[in-house]
Amino acid sequence: MKKFNKIELNKIIILGFLLIACIFLTYYFHFILKTEVVFTHLFYIPITLAGLWWSCKGIVTAILLAAVLPISHILSPLETPLLAELVRSLMFVGVGMSVGLLNEKRCILEDKLRKYSISLEQRVNERTSEVKELQEKQRAILDSISDAVVVLDKNLNILWTNKISQDQYKSTPGRKCYETFKDAKEPCLDCIARKTFADGLNKSSEEEAIIKDGRHINFIVSCSPIKDSQGEIISVVEIFHDITERKKDQEKLKKYQENLEELVKKRTIELEEKSKKLKSTNLKLRELDQLKSMFIASMSHELRTPLNSIIGFTGIILQGMPGEINEEQKKQLGLVKNSANHLLDLINDVIDISKIEANRVEPYIHEFDFAGLAREVQSYFAIASDKKKLKLSLEAPHTLTVKSDERRTKQILVNFVSNAIKFTDRGEIEIKVIQKDEIVEVSVRDTGIGIKKKDMDKLFKAFGRITTKGRIEEGTGLGLYLSKKIAHLLGGDITAESEFNKGSVFILTLPLKR
Amino acid sequence: MKRILVIEDNETNMYLIGYILRKNGYEVIEARSGEEGIGLSITENPDLILMDIQLPGIDGLEATRKIRESKAGGEIPIIALTSYAMTGDRERALKAGCTGYIEKPINPDTFIDEIKKYL
Questions:
Q1: By the CB < 8 Å criterion, does A433 face chain B?
Q2: Is residue A389 in some structural domain?
Q3: A262 CA to chain B: closest CA distance, Å?
Q4: Domains of chain B
Q5: Tens of pLDDT along A138-158?
Q6: Inter-chain touch A311–B91, beta carbons under 8 Å
């Protein structure tokens, strides 16, 4: 009986009254007035009300009132047709049922509607919260962008901003973009928003501004159109990327570059000066070199000139041309002549060495017969070797054409054989000429006193004379040194092998074609 | 008697060469410079010319060329007196038209024999 709230109670009371009134009326008209008045139409009121209020349950009221009629007919003293009463009763029931059923249906529909309405509301709420969430997310994303983002309409009004835009530039929807970003009263001269509206293409440009708190900033604005489904541009979105730091760095870089250029200029000048100095030093060196050559040339000439007289005249006197000389005079003059010749040899050797060392020697390269040269040298020393009773043999091909400096090659050969004769007291000296591929090899082997192992490295050194007890020092001490230098000059080399007291071999190798 | 023209600027050398030649029976004509030598080569028509390479004024090679150019001097054997020190002296001498060369300092023992080759 919880359902019994005030309205229900009121309904029951009202219906109760109506029912009682109907029954009373029936009694009054049938039993008191004894007249037939169709007052039963009033019965429809409670029936309808009951049907409306309680749907199918309200049919009870209809049935009740429908029953009243036949009962009243039976009980009533009036002569009323039963059929009419029955019909009326049926009509009551009918009406009651209809109203009841209709109301039931209405109630069910209402229920359904309510349910739908509730679920719809629910769904709407869900969607709304989803949308809110999405919006929040979007906003969070956009707010987390460190660049200021604004959406503008055709008249440059701000339609939407993100957080940074608001915080940094104090831009709010409704204001004009140039008011907030540039603190200006008018749009920029080449407003890219306008350009974008005009041609619908993405743009970007570099701008400079002084914002509200007085700071000077540089930024890059990029502008893109927002189009609707028909392709019409409805708004543009602008992104402001702060490049103040970058600009500052660029300025710094520029300064550094300028500094660097200054430095480079300075260094270049310094370098040029150094280069000039170097050039002048080079020039001086070249001059010195020339002086050196001239010195060598003139010195050699000067040194040799007096020797003309010394050698010449001692020779003449020794021949007895100016008159006979005695034995002692002959002996002494002979010694003078020897010394003079020795001096000449020394001068020649020194000149040779200094020329080679100053790279002043140009070998005179031409073809000559190496075998023939060897024979020439052999005959040159024939007398000297005979004097010491040494055998001087030569083993060489009939001819051997070599392209090199003949005179200098001869110089080396002469040096070899001369040494061999000097240092050999008995036995033989063997000259051998062989061709090995592109090389010619001439070896001079002797059975002389040989060279000790420890003295071998002195062999080719200047003035590196090896002295042995009892032997007179002869020669300039430059022979082998010079020979080796000449050999190198001609693209070859000299090697020596020796065994003390057994003998030595000196080998000259030259390229067949220099 | 064979006549030899000696072109040499050094007094001592001239004396030396002249002495040896005369003692060996040659007539010696002396010239102290290239120019003198050229002139004498034409006028005297010697059998041999001994030319010092190192001469003041016209050097020996130039003189040699001049003599070779002249009609008279074309055939006379010219011997260059070369110095060992100078690179390519010999080769240049031969190129300029010298018939042969003798190296200074002169070897008095072999000098005459060497000259005889050209006479």
A1: no
A2: yes
A3: 54
A4: 3-116 (3.40.50.2300)
A5: 888 888 888 888 898 888 888
A6: no
